[in-house]
Write a structure and sequence with these properties.
There is one protein chain. By secondary structure, this protein is α/β, with parallel strands linked by helices. Helix content is 40%, strand content 13%. It is built from 25 helices and 23 strands. Strands 4, 13, 14, 15, 16, 17, 18, 19, 20 and 21 form a ten-stranded mixed β-sheet that branches. An eight-stranded parallel β-sheet has the order 5-6-7-8-9-10-11-12. It has a three-stranded antiparallel β-sheet with strand order 1-2-3. A hairpin with a 5-residue loop joins strand 22 and strand 23. Helix 6 packs parallel to helix 13 and helix 12 packs parallel to helix 13.
């Protein structure tokens, strides 16, 4: 008789058998399914960092910037393929330096944490420029490439400033799509290359256009790109009024588009751009007012994450035809702006069949563009235009890493069941449910494992229905859960997926996962020399059922992870990679969770190969409250006053001196702990954080934070001094 049969047949349960005990196998279990044998062989295999690199596809999505080192930690190669061995940076060492207390030499910043790597950003810019330079030289192209960074991808000050600085040697510029983006671009480019483009996209009103014209007055190489035909009238009127000769571009609405999610804004029905009829109207109107020489740039965008160079060449070729026609019509054309679309490989598959990957590299992308433009222009005998691109995602995605901690893990686990309990369970079933149980027993005796699963699920659903009708009690539900769990284990079904609770808000830090199902590589940044012992999904801190990550690259619905309970290895850190574009700008304050702490880390010749050049804690509770127009100072005074009233009432039965003592000590405790709560980040804090707990025998009903484990005003004074306003109660 197959072993599973003796487990589910109550008539032949072995006396010593405890249902669901140990590893889920009963005494005398002999019929081991193939899946169980395969799993056993897998467990017997020795583990290594190389196996972890393959398991998490690090070499696919991470090259040339990320790898797994011999210590089992993720390492950063800040200069890409040119990184020397001694220049590699151990990511875990960065996290420890940043998060360790100041008393042991750390910076004391709380997690979650964004690590910015300006060396990676510089390498991405240089690699993109080199790819176009090589393609231009190899194809004998008679012009040059100078790109722009679309600041919408990440408007963070130091990111934009770094791009302007790193891109200055090759005239790299900026693209703006709104008035505040235009203001920051103007300011940053004042320190950049004077030939760098300032491309003004997006819908425009009179103020936007006036700013763009002013930028030209400030000797910035500004191009106003028309997104709507009506914008031309404003440009003409304001330029004449201000006596500033503009440089005008037009965004063309191409027929070429790709079918993925990111292609939805392209094609004839796209959100932006002018049709060929509208472009002809622009030419005619500019000619009428004597400004056709101002028309110098053609822009288009066929969608982000262009999957293949074939589709790219189709779009560029169509745009080059429009460009050549504009030259024929007398426009002073100089620049072809191919827009964004240069994709990155989020899942390491090098495939053009999904939104998560692309089937080309930087060199192939640049070559496809140069060849397509040169082919059209040579046929038309037209001077080769300056090539411009707006490749934001490809520039900034790699340079930013989100680090967060898994604080606990849970799994739904059924109770054990003794043979007597099993018999009682069967006796309490209805006739139909008992028939399902007999069918399960028969299938087990025949060794039909797939059929066992079918009948186990059917029995479970029938018991759920009986419970809803009030026919059976909770004990029966627990018993059927135990039975079904054992059946699954006995026939080799995978272990239950755990839920890892992470100190993070998906809505704030990974909004694209929630909004458009965008997947990012998520990997433990350490312990990669150990075999992952579980599979899990990630559940965030928010009170929202959508606050979880349950889809991962490779089509997986769970992630291989390590056990974190009782492992003795300290905190368990996970990293989300390739999230440097859009995530910070799109993140909100759902549940009033603000952004992470941020550090800027550069490669250095020090003992750990890195230096933290900038560090800032994430928004405090006060900061996020202010975002929603609350006034933390008044809130504090209200709570402090209420606490004083309550403690006075609690002390009214004591003697005079005793009342004064309790009153004073209680006020100090409340003020200190409330102040720290307003001052701290909203995320889970370490054990050393000040918590206000009830203790009726201490401090008038409140726990008083001592100097050792309470709020250290002196340690926080450096952070507080950087704020615009000082809170008088911080030192309470």
């Amino acid at each position: 008789m197959p072993a599973l049969a003796c487990c589910v047949d109550s008539a032949v349960v072995p006396p010593s058998y405890v249902f669901g005990a140990g590893d889920g196998s009963p005494l005398g279990f002999s019929g081991v399914p193939p899946a169980t044998i395969a799993a056993a062989n897998y467990v017997a295999t020795a583990w290594s960092p190389d196996l972890s690199a393959a398991l998490y596809r690090v070499d696919g999505w991470g090259a040339p910037y990320f790898a797994v080192n011999n210590s089992g930690n993720i390492s950063v190669r800040p200069h890409g393929g040119d990184t020397l061995p001694h220049q590699e940076i151990d990511l875990l060492k960065i996290v420890k330096k940043v998060s360790d207390p100041k008393s042991v030499g750390g910076l004391g910043l709380p997690l979650p944490l964004i690590i910015r790597l300006p060396d990676v950003l510089k390498n991405r810019l240089e690699s993109l420029q080199s790819a176009f330079d090589f393609a231009i030289q190899s194809q004998s192209y008679d012009s040059h490439y100078q790109g722009v960074y679309p600041v919408k991808c990440n408007q963070e000050r130091f990111v934009v400033e770094d791009i302007v600085k790193f891109g200055s040697p090759f005239r790299f510029g900026l693209e703006a799509g709104s008035k505040p983006e235009l203001l920051l671009a103007m300011s940053c480019l004042c320190k950049g290359n004077p030939d760098a483009f300032l491309v003004c996209n997006g819908f425009k009103d009179a103020e936007y256009i006036s700013l763009a014209l002013l930028a030209r007055k400030l000797a910035l190489n500004t191009v106003i790109v028309l997104e709507q035909e009506e914008e031309l009238d404003l440009v003409i009127a304001l330029s004449q009024k201000l006596s500033i000769r503009p440089v005008i571009g037009v965004r063309a609405k191409l027929r070429t588009k790709h079918s993925g999610h990111f292609g939805s804004t392209s094609g004839e029905k796209g959100k932006f751009g002018l049709t060929t009829t509208q472009i002809l109207s622009v030419v005619k109107k500019l000619e009428q007012v004597g400004m056709l020489d101002c028309f110098q740039l053609l822009h288009f965008h066929i969608g982000s994450q262009i999957p293949s160079t074939g589709l790219l060449a189709d779009g560029v070729g169509e745009a080059a035809q429009i460009y050549s026609e504009l030259v024929r019509l007398g426009a002073n054309m100089q620049v072809l702006d191919i827009g964004g679309g240069l994709g990155i490989d989020y899942d390491g598959s090098k495939s053009g069949d999904s939104d998560l990957s692309v089937a080309y590299g930087l060199g192939e992308y640049a070559l496809a563009v140069v060849q397509a433009v040169k082919y059209v222009c040579d046929r038309k005998n037209i001077k080769h235009p300056v090539l411009c691109s707006e490749s934001g995602r490809a520039i900034v995605s790699h340079h930013s890493i989100l680090i967060f901690e898994a604080v606990s893990a849970t799994v739904s686990k059924a109770a054990t069941m003794t043979p007597l309990a099993l018999q009682c369970f069967v006796d309490g079933l209805t006739d139909d449910a008992r028939a399902d149980y007999r069918n399960l027993t028969s299938a087990a005796m025949r060794g039909e494992y797939e059929t066992c699963l079918l009948y186990a699920d059917q029995l479970k659903q029938r018991c759920v229905d009986l419970f809803r009708d009030g026919t059976i009690g909770m004990e029966h539900l627990a018993a059927v859960d135990a039975l079904c769990e054992f059946v699954g284990k006995a026939i080799g079904v995978a272990e239950p997926v755990k839920t890892y609770h992470v100190n993070l808000s998906v809505f704030t830090s990974v909004p694209d996962f929630w909004g458009i199902d965008q997947l990012f590589p998520i990997v433990p940044i350490h312990r990669l020399d150990e075999r992952p012992g579980a599979r899990g999904i990630l559940s965030d801190l928010t009170c929202d059922s959508d606050g979880k990550i349950n889809k991962f690259i490779g089509g997986e619905e769970s992630l291989p992870l390590h056990e974190i309970e009782g492992n003795g290895n300290g905190p368990y850190y996970l990293g989300m990679f390739l999230g440097g574009a859009y995530e910070e700008a799109l993140g909100g304050v759902h549940n009033l969770f603000g952004g992470p702490s941020v550090v800027r880390v550069s490669q250095s010749d020090g003992p750990h190969s890195f230096a933290v050049t900038r560090a800032a804690p994430g928004p405090s509770c006060s900061d996020v409250l202010r975002v929603m127009h609350h006034e933390p100072e008044l809130m504090f005074e209200t709570l402090k006053h209420r606490a004083e009233e309550m403690m006075y009432d609690d002390s009214s039965d004591d003697g005079e001196s005793s009342m004064d003592h309790h009153h004073h000590r209680g006020n100090a405790a409340v003020a200190s702990c409330l102040a720290r709560s307003f001052h701290n980040m909203p995320y889970l804090a370490g054990a050393s954080s000040c918590s206000l707990t009830a203790a009726m025998d201490n401090g008038g009903g409140f726990y008083y934070c001592s100097d050792e484990d309470g709020y250290d005003a002196a340690a926080d004074s450096a952070v507080a001094s950087a704020e615009d306003e000082q809170w008088s109660y911080v030192c309470a």
